[in-house]
Each structure stands twice: as structure tokens, then as C-alpha cells.
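Handout, page 2. Input:
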Amino acid sequence: MGLLFPLKDTNNKDLSIADVNAILLKFDAMDSVLKGGFGAATTAGVEDWNDPSNLAAGWCQTLLLGSAANGMGGSNYWYLLNLEYTSKNGTGNLTQIAFPYDVSSPTGRKIWMRSRFSGTWSSWYSVTFA
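Output:
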């Protein structure tokens, strides 16, 4: 089976799955991070937005409730993306961006963000969509 969305190299040649795997291995060898794919895999993780398991650069594997410890509040579930400067292991300066799991209610039509700089967390700030 080929790729669902064919990828091309700079010469417009189709890339095989083996080609993509080789690229990802090179990416990993550059000490870069592509963690967790895109999106969460469970709701059974640690329900604390500041827990080390939820802080590594990339997508958090747990859907987190807004009401969980250190969350923004509310009963909605959120996907969490961590953008981290330098260390890429959850210990550096980072920005957390929370994307809604369900946008059917007005409380789910927001994207939340906060940052940690020199160990101090900012408040949560939201962008609301109509």
C-alpha cells in the first residue's frame, strides 16, 4: 500500500514509504523532535497540565480536561501542543497551545495558550472563534 497523500521530492519524483522512513530517521538523528504524531491517544494519562509527562516538546498523548490541575478551567477536553525552546525534553522555556476536542459548544470554540519562562508559568489566554 502506498502513501495516502503522495509525497514528492524536489525533482517531483514520488517518495515511497521507505523514503519517508529514511527522512524521519535523519530528522531524528538531527536531535529534532516529532513526538506523538498529530493528536492524542488516550484520556488515561496524568491529569495535570504541568506534569512532566505532558510537557515534552510536541503533541501530548493525553487529552486533558480544562478542569485538570493547572488547566484553564471548564469541563472540555483539549489536545495539547508544546513548543519548546532548545531542550525539547519539557524542562526548557515553552509555550503550550490547547486545541479543542469538541467545538459543538461555545466553550469549545477557543484556542488557549500560556508560556513558561525561566520556570514561571503565565496565565492562560484564549482566542475565541464565532
